[in-house]
Amino acid sequence: MESGIKYEDIVQATVSAIQRAETELPDDVVACLENAEQEESSEIARSHLQAILKNTGIARRHSVPICQDTGIIILFVEIGRKLSPLPDIEQALIEGVMKATSAVPLRPNAVHPLTRINSGDNTGDGLPDIKYYLNNSEELRITAVPKGAGSENMSILKMLNPTEGDSIDRLVLETVRNAGGKPCPPVILGIGVGGSFDKAALLAKCALLEPVNDMDEKENALLKKVNSLGVGPMGTGGDTTALAVHIRTAHCHTASLPVAINIQCWANRHATAVIGGNGKWNII
Predict the structure, then answer these.
(1) pTM, rounded to two decimals
(2) Cα torsion 40, 44, 50, 56: sign
(3) How far is C-alpha 145 from the chain's CA centre?
(4) In 172-240, beta strands by DSSP E
(5) Counting runs of H as helices and runs of E as strands, what totals does the chain give?
(6) What is the C-alpha to C-alpha distance for residues 21 and 110, in angstroms, rounded to an integer?
(7) From which residue to which does the signal peptide run (predicted)?
(8) Which of 169, 215, 244, 275 could bond to 281 as cystine, CB 3.0-4.6 Å?
(9) How many CB atoms lie within 10 A of CB 138?
(10) Other beta carbons within 10 Å of 241
(11) For residues 228 and 29, what is the distance between their CA atoms, to the nearest angstrom?
């Protein structure tokens, strides 16, 4: 049985999700930045936050990228088990990234790791970075997450000893302090604890997609510690070093404790295209 979702539906939905993510910061992130600007006690820090908010407004009004670093494209793809068989979804996603590169437009960022030769269209071996999941719906959901290098380069993964659980907060604080202004703070911290070496990193990445203000008591406590460092917006000092801290966990081997800290700059960009079984789609 042929699916109501066509190849071109996936291509166009991917382009639209990337365009929304690149040009419109999610409302919860904007609201958090506005609140930080109101509460910031440092005049210099406040001016940075005002500039950030002005920038996001211009990007939204003119539908242009929020940042010159349009990142590499990470796609979280949720496939409903109740859908009819789909067309070549992976090739459609890749084509969507290629088209978005010229349509948005995006800076070509994808290079071979050793030769540094640029593919010119943000695709290549392993890019876009696609994560597939199954659910029980009749929908195909494509979440586009552009990830820039400034914040990604400051991220870390460490294999702690099982007895070092109490040192996780210290590791987070050391990581943020050492990063300083390089990841363009105020940052959002995704922290993955447990799993395997690679699972911890994926947990940290996924944590960045949580609603920015949806933090539990432990996360809020760690956020206060991070903000007490005084790194501040753009590393020039202030009350707002981070906007949020989100922690995801997974069971791990009895002899290990993987911890990944994925730093995201203030431009926590992501958008989701939802395609119904009839091929109609919208962006959320």
Answers:
(1) 0.95
(2) negative
(3) 5
(4) 187-194
(5) 8, 9
(6) 18
(7) none
(8) 275
(9) 14
(10) 27
(11) 21
Residue 90 clears pLDDT 90, i.e. is over it = yes
Question: Which pair of tokens denotes residue 20?
Answer: 């929304």
Please report which helix (H) or strand (E) contains residue 17, including its range: helix 7-23
Write down the residue that tokens 């978005």 correspond to.
100
Closest among 229, 280, 269 to 143, alpha carbons compared: 269
Which residues on neighbouring strands pair with residue 147, listed in sequence order? Answer: 72
The token duo for 29 is 């992130």
Q: Over 70: is that where the pLDDT of 2 sits?
A: no
Query: Distance between CA atoms of 152 and 135, rounded to whole angstroms?
Result: 29
Distances (CA, A) of 4 to 133, 134, 250, 276, 282: 20, 18, 36, 8, 15
Residue 106 carries which DSSP code? Answer: -
- Domains of the chain (ranges; CATH) run 7-24+66-148+269-283 (3.30.360), 150-264 (no CATH)
The closest of 259, 252, 246 to 164, measured between CA atoms, is 259
Q: How many CA atoms lie within 13 A of 162 on its CB side?
A: 8
89-103 and 7-23 helices, crossing angle to 10°: 40
Amino acid 1: pLDDT: 46
pLDDT in tens, 8-44: 999 999 999 999 999 999 999 999 999 999 999 999 9
